[in-house]
Design brief:
The chain is an all-alpha fold. The protein folds into 3 domains: 214 residues, no CATH class; 114 residues, no CATH class; 233 residues, no CATH class. Helices cover 62% and strands 1% of the residues. The protein contains 30 helices and 2 strands. It has a two-stranded antiparallel ribbon with strand order 1-2. It is globular. 37% of the residues are buried.
């Protein structure tokens, strides 16, 4: 009798005998299925652990189609693990074991060469500033705070000249808290009822602190999100940090950002940061046209994650004694993340799968933790938070590296060609510099190098910027910067950090071209929030240019009419690339974009101002149609 018929019989007749019979049959089926699973060789089971959901489904399809399991598994392993030499395999049993051992040895060999002392310290220092991913419950709270900030007109009402500004700020803060309470009631009636029962916000201090912290943490993990509401949030928190405001509100809104390091420290699991496998588990997997190499890299990463989960989580010490189909197969399905999943909210996931298991292919278990307080889900959050940071660097720092490489490949500082970088006699109306080819080459090189260092340290700079913004003793003043009324506030911590970065770049590139003045807390960069927002535009400026340059050959050579057009107008694809690069390296770094030399010029901030100015004039360039053909839609990114 089928399951649907048994269920129908039980519901309609209500006979206990049928239910007992069904349960007895289910237990027998479970034992039979468990026995079948036990007959699978442990080596093959390890290989199945290393595959993701899509790959396991592929195996099942071929087995159900009549293929022999061992043969199918061998073919799948060959395809996904990238192993090519199968002629010398003595048996299927030895093959699986050798494949696992080889992969294990390769990973540890690679890591032993790269994961030296400096790299360990780098990961530890990075973990101190990388925010922890928000979980499912926190995401629900995030919707509340985003909804409240979207409808709030806080900055429009507060940042104006008025007699009693403190009272106006208190009213606005209470309005936001009231909106949050109303949203909380609609989200969870019982808990929301407690929030508004006495109309006393002080009693709900922890609730609102967590709300604001989650929103700040989410923004740092996803710079493309909360473009408007994040500024409102920080300006609100800036005001609540004032002593007189805290006395009126009777609670403090700000708490430190929860970082990976702080979370691991609270769980007694800091030893994870010294584990060489963490390097493999958190590295970004770049797209590769060779499918075998790509799948091998993804498999190595999944196995590293699985091994870390099995050794450091509290579940591994308790063991898993589940019986029936749910126990063994949950390792294949319940903890699997498909490679094909599309994270729409730009959580910067690398696209690799995750299989959680109490076993593992890695046999080096010398550092077993005795007191494990962290669960697999929490450990997974930490791993993927560090991975998010590496993906952030891939999408924000790598375009700068590519532009540096383009500069070195297409231009020689000592041998200028007919298409060079000289600004002498330049036709650009905005140019404020007068560099020759050699001087402009090194000016561009050091500017790009400085931007790369800023991107590499963005999480640290962001944390420092929030410290300056939310410092109780660091007051701001309203002032007209030429672009409206802004909060002008000093940023001593951020200024010191930027001085260190500039000093490092100066020692790296040698002689310094131009000014090394850093604008912070003046009309050019009013506060630390504007600084972070300004440098987050660098990848938005460079990524479309890199995309165009990398797409030109495929787009132009794929159409004979476009190829003729480019040949006649620009002299070919390579010359077209050089023309685009020369125009950007000249007029994107010419000191223009402002009314005077103090606001633009060659200072640290002025270099980015010039690049913005070049972007605003892209439509007037002769090569602009080429940008459109290569998929260009703008420099603003996604909203």
């Amino acid at each position: 009798m089928s399951a649907s018929n048994r269920l129908k019989d039980i519901l309609e007749n209500g006979e206990v005998a049928h239910l007992d019979c069904y349960l007895e049959n289910y237990e027998n089926d479970s034992e039979t299925n468990e026995g079948i699973i036990k007959h699978i060789q442990s080596e093959n089971l390890n290989l199945l652990h290393a595959l993701n959901q899509r790959e396991v489904i592929h195996i099942l399809d071929r087995v159900l189609g009549g293929g022999e399991f061992e043969s199918v598994l061998r073919d799948i392993a060959k395809e996904y693990l990238g192993t090519h030499d199968f002629k010398n395999k003595t048996s299927d049993q030895n093959y699986a074991r050798k494949c696992a051992d080889t992969l294990h040895d390769d990973i540890y060999l690679d890591i032993s060469e790269t994961f030296a002392g400096p790299n360990i310290m780098k990961i530890i220092n990075t973990a101190k500033y990388v925010p922890l991913r928000i979980d499912v419950k926190e995401r629900q709270m995030l919707r509340l705070i985003e909804g409240a900030l979207e409808v709030s007109e806080y900055t429009d009402r507060v940042d104006v000249i008025c007699e009693n500004k403190s009272r106006r700020i208190v009213n606005e803060v209470r309005q936001v808290c009231a909106i949050l309470s109303g949203l909380a009631v609609s989200f969870d009636y019982e808990n929301g009822q407690k929030l508004v029962h006495d109309r006393n916000f002080k009693d709900n201090e922890i609730f609102f602190q967590n709300m604001f912290e989650i929103a700040r943490r989410y923004k740092m993990l996803n710079p493309e999100k909360m473009r408007d509401s994040y500024g409102k949030l920080l300006y609100l928190l800036m005001d609540t940090q004032k002593e007189e405001i805290q006395e009126l509100l009777q609670f403090k809104c700000c708490i430190p950002i929860l970082t990976v390091y702080d979370f691991l420290n609270s769980k007694g699991c800091l030893e994870l940061l010294n584990d060489p496998l963490l390097y493999e588990a958190t590295r970004n997997i770049e797209d590769n046209k060779d499918r075998n190499l790509l799948n091998k890299s993804l498999t190595r990463k999944r196995m590293a994650i699985k091994d870390i989960l099995s050794r450091y989580s509290i579940e591994s010490s308790q063991g898993n004694n589940s019986k029936g189909i749910g126990g063994p197969f949950s390792r294949f399905w319940m903890y699997t993340r498909s490679n094909d999943s599309n994270i729409e909210e730009n959580e910067n996931c690398s696209g690799s799968g995750l299989i959680s298991s109490s076993g593992g292919l890695f046999r080096n278990k010398n550092r077993e933790l005795t007191d494990k307080k962290i669960t697999k889900d929490e450990l997974e959050l930490c791993i993927y938070s560090l991975n998010d940071h590496n993906v952030f660097l891939y999408y924000n720092r790598d375009p700068i590296n590519k532009m540096i490489q383009f500069l070195k490949d297409y231009f020689d500082p000592n041998c200028p060609s007919d298409i060079n970088l000289s600004l002498i006699g330049s036709k650009g109306m905005s140019s404020r510099l007068n560099h020759d080819h050699n001087r402009q080459y090194f000016y561009v090189l050091q500017s790009l190098t400085m931007w790369r260092e800023v991107m590499d340290n963005m999480m640290r700079l962001w944390c420092i910027a929030e410290d300056d913004l939310l410092d109780e003793k660091n007051r701001y003043r309203l002032g007209n910067t030429g672009q409206g009324i802004h909060r002008i506030q000093g940023a001593p911590r951020l200024y010191k950090a930027m001085c260190e970065i500039v000093s490092k770049v100066q020692s790296e590139v040698g002689s310094w071209v131009g000014s090394s003045v850093i604008h912070l807390g003046d009309r050019n960069v009013p506060n630390a929030l504007m600084f972070i927002d300004k440098y987050l535009q660098v990848p938005k400026i460079l990524s479309p240019i890199v995309l165009c340059l990398e797409s030109i050959d495929e787009v132009i050579n794929g159409n004979k009419y476009l190829k003729i057009f480019v040949e006649n107008c620009f002299g070919g694809c390579e010359k077209l690339k050089k023309i685009i690069l020369a125009d950007f390296f000249k007029h994107g770094f010419d000191g223009g974009g402002a009314d005077n030399f103090f606001d633009a010029g060659s200072c640290i901030d002025g270099r980015l101002t010039s690049a913005w100015n070049w972007c605003s004039r892209i439509e007037s360039k002769a090569f602009f149609p080429i940008f459109l053909l290569c998929g260009f839609i703008g420099f603003d990114g996604k909203f």
